[in-house]
Structure to design on (513 residues):
């Protein structure tokens, strides 16, 4: 009847779902204004509620990954990947029918659960169907397609809002999801199935999920930011509300680690005599993986890369918004610059995979992180009022190339280190750790940047004129603009140092034996 799908066909099928999910992750950014208007969210009073249009998706996207990655190890990739697409389909049907914000968020959480599940399972599938020496190019290809989805999302959203409406994003997801389900059911039918039955570690899953959920809520709300003087001011009282979330996240994480260690050390007592006749219970994450040099090194690099990536994604638009008087022009320039960075990132992700197959993990990772350090260094030392957009563009392209080169070697190092029955959870950790790095980086950026701004704005030299004098008013605006740009470029310099730290960490990577 049908011949067995080739590895390239399997890659194309899972990459299709990943692209659709990546598009759905970023598409809302250019639709927010129309969504807020159509859902009757009052501004500015409802701004904190509107933020959950984005936050709810991100939190669900991160929290689902470890469980789904492990679930694919236990029950098989095909069932989990198809199930993820079904969840994504359900959310895509729900969202355009939502009459209010609460209904909209429920639908977005469903799409996030499906979309977040697809990425690690797709990475694990690559480990299943490709030989060890060929995985890097496949991983780079998947990374390039995932990044291309990020790039396409905001442009696609802008086109839909311009010619149709934001609801069409989700209407069009329906046939795409159905195509993905049919293709995945066919293409993944010959994937290896788990040989031994296992039970799912529900306690470990619950503790890790609670920790990730609460930590992300805390990080996303670590600063109550209010507009002031072209930048922002931090409302310190928010800290009193946030710290219990950090405490709860820490407690849940400690319980998770202790339980995982107990499972690893007491397998015979807990799961043979105590549960005779039942499938064995293995830890959600085998902590022995972290004893492997390539695994713990790659995971740490991924965390640091996430932290510096978010700084570029957030600070570049901030710089442009400060320098550009016209708001619409600022949005266009920001989109143009970030598209150049992510476009270079997508292309170099594939190139990084090919280079990794030839030179192994360390040299490609070193080259990528060196480019990241150079890119941030150039931005931190040369961006100022009057810097040409063309200069910003090529420096961001250097930065994007660095990020792209790192994707394949780091991801492949993790996949190749993990045993077959832990490949799904290992793939999840690649994404989760990067996203956690982004959350931590964003929180640290907000806290440090705002405090630095408060210090520097007290040093603005103003003329000895009445406050109402136009010259005095212009001096205030010019001073605040200069201080804001200085704070943001200082952040680029700090980030360049973090990239160099990641580069030193990458020296621990070893070649495959």
């Amino acid at each position: 009847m049908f011949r067995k799908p080739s590895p390239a066909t399997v890659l194309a099928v899972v990459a299709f779902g990943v692209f659709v999910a990546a598009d759905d992750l970023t598409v809302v950014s250019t639709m927010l204004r129309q969504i807020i208007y159509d859902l009757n969210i009052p501004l500015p009073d409802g701004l904190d509620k509107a933020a959950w249009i984005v936050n709810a998706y991100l939190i669900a996207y991160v929290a689902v990954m470890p469980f789904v990655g492990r679930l694919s190890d236990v029950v098989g990739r095909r069932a989990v990947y198809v199930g993820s697409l079904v969840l994504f389909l359900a959310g895509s049907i729900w969202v355009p029918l939502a009459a209010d914000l609460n209904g909209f968020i429920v639908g977005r959480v469903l799409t996030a659960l499906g979309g977040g599940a697809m990425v690690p399972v797709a990475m694990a599938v690559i480990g299943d169907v490709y030989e060890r020496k060929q995985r890097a190019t496949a991983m780079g290809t998947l990374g390039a397609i995932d990044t291309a989805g990020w790039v396409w999302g905001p442009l696609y959203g802008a086109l839909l809002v311009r010619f149709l409406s934001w609801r069409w994003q989700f209407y069009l997801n329906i046939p795409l999801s159905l195509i993905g389900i049919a293709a995945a059911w066919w293409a993944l039918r010959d994937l290896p199935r788990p040989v031994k039955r296992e039970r799912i570690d529900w306690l470990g899953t619950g503790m890790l999920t609670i920790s990730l959920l609460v930590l992300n809520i805390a990080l996303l709300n670590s600063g109550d930011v209010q507009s002031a003087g072209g930048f922002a001011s931090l409302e310190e009282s928010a800290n009193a509300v946030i710290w219990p979330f950090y405490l709860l996240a820490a407690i849940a994480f400690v319980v998770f680690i202790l339980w995982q260690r107990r499972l690893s050390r007491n397998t015979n007592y807990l799961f043979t005599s105590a549960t005779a006749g039942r499938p064995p219970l293995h830890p959600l994450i085998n902590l022995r993986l972290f004893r492997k040099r390539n695994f713990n090194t790659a995971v740490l690099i991924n965390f640091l890369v996430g932290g510096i990536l978010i700084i570029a994604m957030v600070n570049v638009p901030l710089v442009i918004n400060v320098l550009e008087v016209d708001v619409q022009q600022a949005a266009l320039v920001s989109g143009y610059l970030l598209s150049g960075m992510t476009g270079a990132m997508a292309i170099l992700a594939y190139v990084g995979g090919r280079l990794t197959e030839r030179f192994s993990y360390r040299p490609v990772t070193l080259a990528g992180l060196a480019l990241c350090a150079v890119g941030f260094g150039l931005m931190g030392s040369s961006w100022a009022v009057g810097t040409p957009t063309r200069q910003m563009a090529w420096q961001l392209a250097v930065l994007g190339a660095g990020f792209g080169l790192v994707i394949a070697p780091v991801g492949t190092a993790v996949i190749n280190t993990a045993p077959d029955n832990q490949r799904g959870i290992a793939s999840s950790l690649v994404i989760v750790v990067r996203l956690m790095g982004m959350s931590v980086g964003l929180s640290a950026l907000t806290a440090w940047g705002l405090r630095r701004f408060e210090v520097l704005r007290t040093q603005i030299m103003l003329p000895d004129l009445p406050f109402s004098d136009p010259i005095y008013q212009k001096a205030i605006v010019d001073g605040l603009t200069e201080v804001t740009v200085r704070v943001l470029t200082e952040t680029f310099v700090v980030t360049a140092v973090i990239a160099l730290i990641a580069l030193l960490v990458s020296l621990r990577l070893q070649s495959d034996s």
Notes: The chain has a mean pLDDT of 78. Strands lie at 224-226, 233-235.
